[in-house]
Structures are given as structure tokens and as C-alpha cells.
Hints:
- The protein is 34% helix and 17% strand.
- By secondary structure, it is α+β, with helices and mostly antiparallel strands.
- The protein has two domains: 3-77, no CATH class; 129-323, Sortase, Chain: A.
- It has an eight-stranded mixed beta barrel with strand order 1-2-3-4-8-9-6-5.
- The model is unreliable at 1-56 and 138-144 (pLDDT under 50).
Amino acid sequence: MSKHGADGESMRTDGTQDAGRGWENAQPIPESYESQAAPPGGRHGAHHRKARGRDSTPAKAVRGSAASRGPRSNRDLVRTGIRGLGQTLITFGLIVLLFVVYELFVTDIFTNQRQEELTEELLQNWEDDPALDPTLGPDLPGGGLPTVPLGDGFARIRIPVFGGDYVKVVVEGTDPDELLQGPGHYVDSAMPGELGNFALAGHRVGKGSPFLDLDRLLPGNAIVIETAETWFTYRVMGDPASGDYDTDPSGIPGQEIVSPEDVEVVFPIPGVSDTDVEPTAAYLTLTTCHPKFSAAQRLIVHAVLDGPGLPRADFPDGPPALTEN
Length: 325
């Protein structure tokens, strides 16, 4: 708004008028005298009307501009809200994406690094004193309760159909800290080669993904467990010829999908809740989440020991089952 416009607005407020910028210091003119001294049709009246015209036009423009800004301000608020919501959703999406990338890829890197460390530690321990095999308990000849500290590696698992480079160190325990390092052994289950159920848990996606392809195992496929002194070969239960998982005389399926609450799958005799029944065979059970990217169910693979264990000293390159594909 111009200075004339501002002066005119001020004068209309207090009931006085200005005849021009030269009159700024003059005394206010009473309205009756103004009408006599400056008739509406005279020169001063014309000048006054012209001045009022100049002063009133910006005021109208200002009032019109303020009125027109009202609706635009409301639209701006809506646009600002939508923009803010969009930015929030984008930020949330990026956070979720980063979390997924971390879970699927970054944790794999950490677990693989830890597996390398565990492999070095395990092989060094076996080389230093293979007789100190923690999988053998002190009470029973050839077996017994494990003496493995939680989180320590004590064996290696190999699955030939997954490729010759599939080798994972098995650690003691199945809590999150243990499974972050690799496949974990259920602490109350049997040890490799023992009668009962040597049960392992492992992540299917992320954290090394040791059991990512567990659903690819078919009846008859070999699963080899390596300890300090012995190779143990287990085979997935079922009929290798037909691929039927449910043909074993024991009634134990080679593969099944259960709820997380069905803990009987890791009992000494898989699926038999009566723990007073003594097992007569050596089983291996692998458990992981199902389906992929979900923990709603559990994918279970059962295998049975195929013959006695083979000494590592006599078979330094592993049992014949390692060459199967």
C-alpha cells in the first residue's frame, strides 16, 4: 500500500481529510468549514475527490487481495497436509525397506563371518586334542549328556544335495543369540550318533539362511554330521523310489509342516509325547520356519542314521555319501 493510501485510511478513521502531502502539519479542518471553503464543484473539491480516489483504490485492492487469499490458504493447508503425509509414508517405507535389507542380507554377512570364525576355532580344537570331543558324555560309553557350553560349536553339518560347499558349524543352543551364529542344537536332545533324536534348528531366511532350501530334501537324501572323531550319515525318511515321505514303518514322516507349538517333533522319538518309551533308533530332526519370510508354521525334516559312524581318521575326506548329488 502506498503512503497516500495509508494516510487516507488513517484520516477516514478519525473523521478528517488531507488536501495533499503539503498539509500534513496543518490543523484538522472542521467539516462545515471544508464544505464552505472547498465546494464540491470547485477546484479544491475536485482535488479532494481525486485524492480520495487515489487513496481508496489501494485499500479496495488490499481488501480484495485479502479476501482472495482466504480460499487459497485453505487449499495450501490441504496440500501441505498431503505433502507431509506423503513424506511420512515415504520415510516409513524407507525404514521398512532398510530393515528388510538388513534382515535378509546384512545379517547373512555377519553370520557367515561368524561361521568362518567358528570353523577355525572348531578345527583348531579338534587338531589340538580330538579326544576331548564334547559330544561324548563322561558317564556313558560312546555317548551321554553333552558338555558343550551354549554358543560353542561342536560339529559340522553337510548336505550334499545343496552342493559341496554347504558346510555349517552347529552350535549348542537354540536361543536367538545362538541361532544368529548358525544352526543350533536343542540342548535336551540326543547328540550325533546316539539313540534318540539329534534335533537342530536354523533360520530359513536371513542370519545365514542355513535351512533356506530344507523343502528340497527328498526321501533318501543324505545329511552328514561331522564330529571330532566320527562321520555320521543320516537319510531323510520315506521311500526314495516314489518320493513318498510317509512310508517308514515307524510312522515318522520324512517331512511335515506343523505349528510352532508341536514340540513333539523334537522328542526322543519324533511325534511320540510319551518320553518313557525308549528310542530304538538314532534320528536327526531339522526344524525351520515355514513358509519363507514367515514364522507362522514350522517345516520339519526327519532322518534316520544310516549305519554306524565312520572314523575321521580312516575317512579324512568324508564318507561316500558326500559325493552324492
